[in-house]
Specification:
It is a single chain. By secondary structure, the chain is mainly α. It is built from 7 helices and no strands. α1 packs antiparallel against α2, α3 packs across α4 and α5 packs antiparallel against α6. The termini are far apart.
Length: 128
């Protein structure tokens, strides 16, 4: 069994985070640590938040390693875009093609792939 033991200042910080933070995931992580401190087991916490036990243990690990900043979602977790913001000509071309055929992004992606040779244009269209 694994539990997190919190000091009084940590308790206050996590209670404030669980009540007042703007991000739901952050409030959930704060609450999970508070529950662990109160004696809830990892399995019980994961059942309450409908997540895997591995995830709850990860929250605990990042809390122990990084403190409060470890409860935030870390940057760089998403798939990296193959089209960069600096590719102005490509972006202009994408916008022009979408304006010509806004209801069929598959055909827009096909045209752009043929013109620019970017194999994953379709994956990037939703971000524009």
């Amino acid at each position: 069994m694994r539990f997190i033991h919190l000091t009084e200042p940590e308790l206050e910080t996590l209670e404030q985070g669980s009540r007042n933070h703007g991000k739901p995931y952050f409030r959930q992580r704060c609450e999970s640590l508070l529950l662990s401190h109160r004696g809830y087991q990892v399995g019980q916490i994961s059942a309450l938040f409908q997540t895997r036990t591995h995830t709850v243990r990860q929250w605990m690990d990042t809390w122990l390693e990084k403190g409060l900043s470890g409860l935030y979602i870390q940057a760089g977790r998403d798939r990296k875009a193959t089209i960069k913001d600096t590719d102005c000509q490509l972006i202009d071309s994408i916008k022009a093609e979408i304006a010509l055929n806004p209801q069929n992004l598959d055909s827009v992606a096909l045209v752009l792939e043929q013109q620019w040779g970017v194999a994953s244009v379709k994956n990037n269209l939703n971000a524009l």
